[in-house]
């Protein structure tokens, strides 16, 4: 019998895993943004000494994982499982990173929802008694994602105002069966929603319905209300998706006006950095969570956070075939104190 399951899509941790170490590595543009003081490493250039953007992304993720383990006062041999993924074909950034680390590895693909997906599965593994220490991670790179999903940078195509800027960065979280928190206490796993949007330059619109569905179900399953959270933050809906979410959540009976934000909006200064609708990519939620949110929780400025990372589960080939864009959103509750 599923003793830890509550409601239709949520599990409550019996032995909430503790976050004992995090790390965030970002590119130069992200390092010039409003959250620059929260990141562990800011690169001077996007290649970081590598021959290609894809190899650079793998290095970024590897260094984030190593640093998170170091920050947890552990070594890679102490880690029992690595959960990670990215945006590139066959999740090459994560697999090539895992090749270097020699940690038992689960490769994940949730597009930009991967940080919450990895935290969800990692937490369930620890809570279930299958491991004591795991690492959850993900990454993205503006230049590698652009030439896979859109156009090579040399093409110089015009970007729509609804388009978002893929974050160059990686975040990693070490979860442990022991520790002083913050703790992962609830996980609400999302369902795929697809309302027929086909515009790859409107990721916020494509993913917002999934975020609305998951957040609403989380409140129904747990009995929490928006007021029970200091911060409810989506992965990367950007300006377009944020407006849709706020409007439709009110129709669902939940007013998020006072404590809702979006990682894609927080990471860049839209006016100064010309990122149009905001940030996106797996690295967006990853670096905002492992940098800004975690450190604000450690300071005591945030006590309970709902992280809702969102993903667009499409590919360039299927989009060219005229298919619409399925969206997914996974929600994770992080608490400073376990009640």
Characterise the protein shown here.
It is a single chain. The chain is an alpha/beta fold. The chain is built from 11 helices and 15 strands. The strands form 3 sheets. Strands 1-2-10-15-14-11-12 form a 7-stranded mixed beta sheet, with helices on both faces. The protein has a 6-stranded mixed beta sheet with strand order 4-3-9-7-5-6, with helices on both faces. Strands 8-13 form a two-stranded parallel ribbon.
**Distance, first to last CA:** 24 Å
Topology as H/E string? EEEHEHEHEHEHEEEHEHEHHEHEHE
What is the helix tally?
A: 11
Helix fraction bin: 25-40%
| Average pLDDT metric | 92
Question: What is Rg?
Answer: 18 Å
**Number of E strands:** 15
Shape: globular
CATH architecture of the largest domain: 3-Layer(aba) Sandwich
- What is the percentage of strand-forming residues? 15-25%
How would you briefly describe this protein structure?
The chain has 339 residues and is of the alpha/beta class. The chain has 2 domains: 172 residues, 3-Layer(aba) Sandwich (Peroxisomal Thiolase, Chain A, domain 1), CATH 3.40.47; 153 residues, Stage V sporulation protein AD (Peroxisomal Thiolase, Chain A, domain 1, 3-Layer(aba) Sandwich).
């Amino acid at each position: 019998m599923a003793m830890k399951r509550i409601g239709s899509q949520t599990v409550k941790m019996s032995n909430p895993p503790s976050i004992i170490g995090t790390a965030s590595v970002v590119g130069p543009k992200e390092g010039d943004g409003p959250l620059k003081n929260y990141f562990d490493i800011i690169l001077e250039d996007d290649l970081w000494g590598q021959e290609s953007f894809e190899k650079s992304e793998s290095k970024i993720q590897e260094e984030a994982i190593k640093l998170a383990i170091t920050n947890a006062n552990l070594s890679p041999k102490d880690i029992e499982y690595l959960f990670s993924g990215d945006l590139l074909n066959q999740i090459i950034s994560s697999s090539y990173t895992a090749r270097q680390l020699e940690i038992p590895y689960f490769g994940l693909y949730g597009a930009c929802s991967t940080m919450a997906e990895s935290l969800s599965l990692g937490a369930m593994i620890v809570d279930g008694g299958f491991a004591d220490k795991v690492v959850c991670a993900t990454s993205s790179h503006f230049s590698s994602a652009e030439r896979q999903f859109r156009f090579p940078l040399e093409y110089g195509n015009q970007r729509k105002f609804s388009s978002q800027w893929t974050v160059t960065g990686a975040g990693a979280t070490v979860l442990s069966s022991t520790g002083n928190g913050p703790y992962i206490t609830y996980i609400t796993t999302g369902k795929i929603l697809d309302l027929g949007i086909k515009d790859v330059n409107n990721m916020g619109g494509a993913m917002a319905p999934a975020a609305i569905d998951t957040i609403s179900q989380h409140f129904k399953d747990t009995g929490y209300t928006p007021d029970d959270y200091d911060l409810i933050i989506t992965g990367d809906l950007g300006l377009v998706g944020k407006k849709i979410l706020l409007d439709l959540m009110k129709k669902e009976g939940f007013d998020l006006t006072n404590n809702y934000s979006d990682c894609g909006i927080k990471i860049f200064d839209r006016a100064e950095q010309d990122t149009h609708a905001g940030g996106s990519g797996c690295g967006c939620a990853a670096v905002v969570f492992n940098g800004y949110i975690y450190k604000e929780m450690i300071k005591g400025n945030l006590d309970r956070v709902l992280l809702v990372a969102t993903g667009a589960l499409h590919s360039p080939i299927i989009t060219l075939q005229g298919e619409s864009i399925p969206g997914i959103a996974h929600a994770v509750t992080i608490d400073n104190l376990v009640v």
